[in-house]
Specification:
alpha/beta; six-stranded parallel β-sheet; 6 strands; about 15% strand
Protein backbone atom coordinates (compact mmCIF):
# COMPACT_ATOMS: atom_id res chain seq x y z
CA UNK A 1 0.00 0.00 0.00
CA UNK A 2 2.80 2.45 0.80
CA UNK A 3 4.02 2.13 -2.80
CA UNK A 4 0.91 4.07 -3.91
CA UNK A 5 2.54 7.16 -2.38
CA UNK A 6 5.98 6.75 -3.97
CA UNK A 7 6.72 9.44 -6.57
CA UNK A 8 8.65 8.63 -9.73
CA UNK A 9 10.81 11.74 -9.20
CA UNK A 10 11.23 14.34 -6.45
CA UNK A 11 12.26 17.79 -7.72
CA UNK A 12 12.52 21.00 -5.61
CA UNK A 13 10.14 22.97 -7.86
CA UNK A 14 8.20 22.57 -11.07
CA UNK A 15 10.30 25.21 -12.84
CA UNK A 16 13.36 22.91 -12.52
CA UNK A 17 11.83 20.35 -14.86
CA UNK A 18 13.70 20.63 -18.14
CA UNK A 19 11.55 20.83 -21.27
CA UNK A 20 14.48 19.32 -23.20
CA UNK A 21 14.46 16.23 -20.96
CA UNK A 22 10.67 15.99 -21.23
CA UNK A 23 10.88 16.16 -25.01
CA UNK A 24 13.64 13.50 -25.03
CA UNK A 25 11.35 11.25 -22.97
CA UNK A 26 8.44 11.68 -25.39
CA UNK A 27 6.38 13.76 -22.96
CA UNK A 28 3.73 15.79 -24.81
CA UNK A 29 1.77 17.10 -21.82
CA UNK A 30 2.58 18.10 -18.26
CA UNK A 31 -0.39 17.72 -15.95
CA UNK A 32 0.04 19.77 -12.81
CA UNK A 33 -1.64 20.65 -9.59
CA UNK A 34 -2.39 24.35 -9.11
CA UNK A 35 -1.87 25.57 -5.55
CA UNK A 36 1.67 25.53 -4.20
CA UNK A 37 2.83 23.59 -7.25
CA UNK A 38 2.33 25.90 -10.23
CA UNK A 39 1.52 29.06 -8.27
CA UNK A 40 1.51 29.90 -4.56
CA UNK A 41 -1.97 29.23 -3.17
CA UNK A 42 -2.28 32.86 -2.06
CA UNK A 43 -0.90 34.47 -5.27
CA UNK A 44 -2.98 33.61 -8.32
CA UNK A 45 -0.98 35.74 -10.74
CA UNK A 46 2.13 33.61 -11.08
CA UNK A 47 5.69 34.83 -11.45
CA UNK A 48 8.11 35.70 -14.24
CA UNK A 49 9.85 32.40 -13.48
CA UNK A 50 6.58 30.57 -14.23
CA UNK A 51 6.04 32.49 -17.47
CA UNK A 52 9.60 31.73 -18.62
CA UNK A 53 9.13 28.03 -17.89
CA UNK A 54 5.80 27.97 -19.73
CA UNK A 55 7.45 29.66 -22.73
CA UNK A 56 10.19 27.04 -22.70
CA UNK A 57 7.61 24.24 -22.61
CA UNK A 58 5.87 25.82 -25.59
CA UNK A 59 9.14 26.04 -27.56
CA UNK A 60 9.42 22.26 -27.14
CA UNK A 61 5.77 21.66 -28.11
CA UNK A 62 4.82 20.53 -24.61
CA UNK A 63 1.39 21.51 -23.35
CA UNK A 64 0.47 22.11 -19.72
CA UNK A 65 -2.91 21.28 -18.19
CA UNK A 66 -3.82 22.06 -14.60
CA UNK A 67 -5.62 19.26 -12.77
CA UNK A 68 -7.03 20.65 -9.56
CA UNK A 69 -9.43 19.65 -6.83
CA UNK A 70 -10.56 23.28 -6.63
CA UNK A 71 -13.88 24.43 -8.01
CA UNK A 72 -14.05 25.71 -11.57
CA UNK A 73 -14.41 29.40 -10.66
CA UNK A 74 -11.27 29.31 -8.47
CA UNK A 75 -9.12 27.60 -11.10
CA UNK A 76 -10.45 29.75 -13.94
CA UNK A 77 -9.69 32.95 -12.04
CA UNK A 78 -6.19 31.76 -11.11
CA UNK A 79 -5.34 30.84 -14.69
CA UNK A 80 -7.04 33.60 -16.67
CA UNK A 81 -3.80 35.56 -17.11
CA UNK A 82 -1.84 32.42 -18.05
CA UNK A 83 -4.26 31.09 -20.70
CA UNK A 84 -3.96 27.46 -19.58
CA UNK A 85 -6.49 24.67 -19.91
CA UNK A 86 -7.64 22.89 -16.77
CA UNK A 87 -9.70 20.14 -15.21
CA UNK A 88 -11.38 21.27 -11.99
CA UNK A 89 -13.00 19.18 -9.26
CA UNK A 90 -10.67 16.36 -10.27
CA UNK A 91 -11.30 14.33 -7.10
CA UNK A 92 -7.63 13.51 -6.48
CA UNK A 93 -6.47 11.01 -5.17
CA UNK A 94 -8.88 9.23 -7.48
CA UNK A 95 -7.61 9.11 -11.09
CA UNK A 96 -10.76 10.79 -12.49
CA UNK A 97 -9.17 14.13 -13.46
CA UNK A 98 -6.07 12.54 -14.96
CA UNK A 99 -8.11 10.01 -16.91
CA UNK A 100 -10.42 12.76 -18.15
CA UNK A 101 -7.41 14.74 -19.43
CA UNK A 102 -5.88 11.66 -21.07
CA UNK A 103 -9.12 11.05 -22.93
CA UNK A 104 -9.74 14.72 -23.79
CA UNK A 105 -6.30 15.15 -25.40
CA UNK A 106 -6.10 11.61 -26.88
CA UNK A 107 -2.94 10.75 -24.94
CA UNK A 108 -1.45 7.55 -23.66
CA UNK A 109 0.04 7.39 -20.19
CA UNK A 110 3.63 7.42 -21.46
CA UNK A 111 3.10 10.86 -23.03
CA UNK A 112 2.39 12.65 -19.74
CA UNK A 113 3.71 13.30 -16.27
CA UNK A 114 1.75 14.62 -13.30
CA UNK A 115 3.40 17.21 -11.04
CA UNK A 116 2.18 18.09 -7.56
CA UNK A 117 3.19 19.04 -4.05
CA UNK A 118 1.17 16.46 -2.11
CA UNK A 119 1.63 12.74 -1.66
CA UNK A 120 -2.00 12.24 -0.58
CA UNK A 121 -3.56 13.82 -3.64
CA UNK A 122 -1.20 14.35 -6.56
CA UNK A 123 1.20 11.41 -6.28
CA UNK A 124 -1.50 8.97 -5.22
CA UNK A 125 -3.75 10.08 -8.11
CA UNK A 126 -0.84 9.66 -10.55
CA UNK A 127 -0.09 6.20 -9.31
CA UNK A 128 -3.79 5.27 -9.38
CA UNK A 129 -3.91 6.41 -13.02
CA UNK A 130 -0.66 4.66 -13.97
CA UNK A 131 1.06 7.96 -14.84
CA UNK A 132 4.60 8.93 -13.81
CA UNK A 133 4.63 11.46 -10.99
CA UNK A 134 6.84 14.33 -9.94
CA UNK A 135 6.63 15.46 -6.34
CA UNK A 136 7.72 19.05 -5.79
CA UNK A 137 8.21 21.01 -2.61
CA UNK A 138 5.41 23.51 -1.93
CA UNK A 139 6.22 26.93 -3.41
CA UNK A 140 5.52 28.57 -0.06
CA UNK A 141 5.60 27.17 3.47
CA UNK A 142 2.01 27.99 4.33
CA UNK A 143 -0.99 26.05 3.11
CA UNK A 144 -4.65 26.75 2.69
CA UNK A 145 -6.67 25.50 5.67
CA UNK A 146 -7.95 22.44 3.80
CA UNK A 147 -4.43 21.18 3.01
CA UNK A 148 -3.10 21.20 6.57
CA UNK A 149 -4.61 17.82 7.59
CA UNK A 150 -2.95 16.22 4.54
CA UNK A 151 0.45 17.57 5.58
CA UNK A 152 0.03 16.01 9.02
CA UNK A 153 -0.75 12.60 7.50
CA UNK A 154 2.06 12.98 4.97
CA UNK A 155 4.63 13.10 7.77
CA UNK A 156 3.65 9.58 8.79
CA UNK A 157 3.70 8.37 5.20
CA UNK A 158 7.18 9.87 4.67
CA UNK A 159 8.53 7.79 7.55
CA UNK A 160 7.20 4.61 5.96
CA UNK A 161 8.38 5.59 2.47
CA UNK A 162 11.89 6.37 3.68
CA UNK A 163 12.04 3.08 5.55
CA UNK A 164 10.95 1.01 2.54
CA UNK A 165 12.66 3.04 -0.21
CA UNK A 166 16.09 4.05 1.00
CA UNK A 167 16.94 5.42 -2.45
CA UNK A 168 14.30 8.19 -2.29
CA UNK A 169 16.07 11.49 -2.78
CA UNK A 170 15.49 14.98 -4.10
CA UNK A 171 17.05 15.63 -7.50
CA UNK A 172 17.55 18.88 -9.40
CA UNK A 173 15.69 17.59 -12.47
CA UNK A 174 14.05 14.42 -13.71
CA UNK A 175 16.48 11.61 -14.51
CA UNK A 176 19.40 13.27 -12.67
Amino acid sequence: MISKFKPTWMIPMIYNISPVKLEDMGIKYVFTDLDNTLIPWNNPYGTSQLRNWLNNLSKHNIELVVISNNKRSRVKKALEMLDLDFISRSLKPFPNGINKALKKYHLNKKQVIMVGDQLLTDVWASNNAGVRSVLVKPLIETDAWNTKPNRFIEKKIWKKLNKKYVDLKWQEDIND
